Amino acid sequence: MKTIDQPKKGDYSPFFSTYLNLVTGNNYEEQVLNQSNALLKLFDEKGKAWAEKSYTEGKWTPKEVLGHIIDTERIMTFRALCFARGEKSALPGFDQDPYVLNARFGHVPIEHLLDDFVSQRMALLSLLRILHEDTLDLVGTASGNPITPRALFWIIPGHFIHHLNILKERY
């Protein structure tokens, strides 16, 4: 199992503290795999009808939340790859709402979204396994702020926990 230390303050924008404060330990691979299992179990227990309904007008459905998680993980993984490879160009931010709107996750079968989530998680772990430890602390710029690949990798499980908690509490 891949263990990596969590980032230090200053390796990321304070905005991400909300997510990073949700994760504990250093066994990254175990956390990522456990989260995948927890998500699959939740969607299986709740059923297809649950995945289609938001908890209130104007909020995303569970399928849209899942799609947002996948998109965000892809973006964070891409950023981590870029900075681990020494990219010096600043990478743009992204506005989550147009991403969800344009993705039309409501038209995607839930089985496909769940498969996509698991595939993204496997790709994430595959990348992490081949990166040299030294590259995890290279600094790049995303959304106008300095950030390291290490921080980007750890934001992923924190962001997931944030949304999993919302799915469990509000839906």
Automatic annotation (TrEMBL):
Gene3D superfamilies: dinb family like domain. Residues 37-166 form the DinB-like domain. Pfam families: DinB_2 (PF12867). This is DinB family protein.
